[in-house]
Amino acid sequence: MSPLAIFFLFLINSSLAANTNINNVQNYGAKSDGKTDSSKAFLSAWAAACASNTPATINVPIGKYLIHNATSMDKHARARLLLYTLMGLS
């Protein structure tokens, strides 16, 4: 990849990061223990991201999450860009 292409990718990535509303599911009460139902936390992070007028990210840190009932993810996103960030496997 040429240095110019790398530079433009860096600029695009920096621009998106600067204007992104990050919604970490753990900030909404999700537990990464694999035992606690984190459905409400995931739904709350989804609702916050959808309500954003700027690009939004739903961040899911490393861990095991129990999602028992998350069937209400039917909101339409206002954000022009909605990203999911999965941090890895545990």
UniProtKB/TrEMBL annotation:
Keyword field contains Signal: yes
Q: Does the keyword Signal apply?
A: yes
**Signal peptide range in chain numbering:** 1-17
Name of the protein: Rhamnogalacturonase A/B/Epimerase-like pectate lyase domain-containing protein
Domain Rhamnogalacturonase A/B/Epimerase-like pectate lyase, by residue range, is 24-71
The highest taxon in the source lineage is Eukaryota
Q: Which keywords describe this protein according to UniProt?
A: Signal
Q: Source organism lineage?
A: Eukaryota, Viridiplantae, Streptophyta, Embryophyta, Tracheophyta
Q: Which InterPro entries match?
A: Pectin_lyas_fold, Pectin_lyase_fold/virulence, RHGA/B-epi-like_pectate_lyase
Q: Cross-referenced Pfam families, in alphabetical order?
A: Pect-lyase_RHGA_epim (PF12708)
